[in-house]
Amino acid sequence: MAAIQPLLELRGVSKHFHGGGIFKQGRKVQATKEITLSLAAKECLGLVGESGSGKSTLGRIILGIEKPDRGEVLFQGVNLYGKDRSGIREVRRDLQVVFQDCFSSVNPRRTAGESIAEPLRNFARLSYHDELRTVGNLLELVGLDVEDAAKYPHQFSGGQLQRVCIARAISLRPKLIVLDEAVSSLDVLVQAQILDLLSDLREELGMSYIFISHDLAAVAHLSDRLAVMCSGEIVERLDNMDDIHCLTHPVSLALLAAVLPAQPEYRNKQETGAGKFAAAARTS
Ligand SMILES: Nc1ncnc2c1ncn2[C@@H]1O[C@H](COP(=O)(O)OP(=O)(O)OP(=O)(O)O)[C@@H](O)[C@H]1O
């Protein structure tokens, strides 16, 4: 029987940056190091780690917008950074992103309807009426009203505008959405609503997510699997989120302790694991 091809496959992906200076003589930062992972269709992989661990760099590499120094990124079997560029445009429409800051993700002078229609105009040739209908359907799908199409970004709350950004991201029915801290700037109640919306949309539209966050609770809500990053490397993986309490790496324990501070068993683990990590971080 032929093996099922993963939707996304990363093989030994590394990327470094120069720390700065006019002649780029600054310290070399290894943002991602030999990352290998795969994602099946309709699956959600949570990518967690502390600030600067390389999550967003990896997200940009997956989106095809940050060329790695080494390694391959295969999306639906197409190498996003390969020599053969012929299939790239087609696979790009299946790869979308939702960022943390919805207000800077949209043009303040464009209505919500125009923002949502942007990918449709780039990739799908719809008549004026079909575009209006599609935008209206998308707004309803994300829990907004058809009339909201005429509003400008400043007329929405943060949660409502993130729904607009989600509507834009799903407008072409992509196969994969990278959610880069997509709920981090929202208050807890709105976060829960957006996570439920993302979960429902995944079910309804059969999409996959890479969910980048430093918030393990949010990630656990949505993800099937987990990868923990530290200094550009994946240091721990979980194939079943039910095993979340079996995490052992100090970074994982620090993230776990941040969401479960009240439970004594994790406080103890924090003292032996994450606590040590925090102490090491303070002294380094
Ligand atoms: N364009 C760039 N130029 C130089 N250094 C960069 C660039 N982008 C990222 N870095 C560095 O690469 C490392 C990883 O950054 P990255 O933004 O991927 O981490 P992160 O885990 O997403 O962090 P955060 O959660 O704070 O967004 C950091 O040390 C960062 O300073």
Question: How would you describe this structure to a colleague?
Answer:
This protein is of the alpha/beta class. Among the domains are: 1-20 and 28-94 and 176-185 and 203-239, Rossmann fold; 247-284, no CATH class. The chain is 39% helix and 23% strand. It is built from ten helices and ten strands. The chain has helices spanning 55-63, 88-92, 102-105, 112-123, 128-141, 158-170, 188-205, 216-222, 250-259, 264-283; strands at residues 8-18, 28-39, 44-49, 70-75, 78-79, 95-98, 176-180, 208-213, 225-230, 233-238. The strands form two sheets. It has a six-stranded mixed beta sheet with strand order 6-7-8-3-9-10, with helices on both faces. A hairpin with a 2-residue loop joins β4 and β5 (78-79). α6 (158-170) runs parallel beside α7 and α9 (250-259) crosses α10 (264-283). 37% of the residues are buried. Bound molecules: adenosine-5'-triphosphate. Residues 17, 29, 31, 49, 51-57, 214 line the site of adenosine-5'-triphosphate. The site of adenosine-5'-triphosphate has 12 residues, from β2 and α1. InterPro entries: AAA+_ATPase, ABC_transp_ATP-bind, ABC_transporter-like_ATP-bd, ABC_transporter-like_CS, P-loop_NTPase. This is Nickel transport system ATP-binding protein. Pfam families: ABC_tran (PF00005).
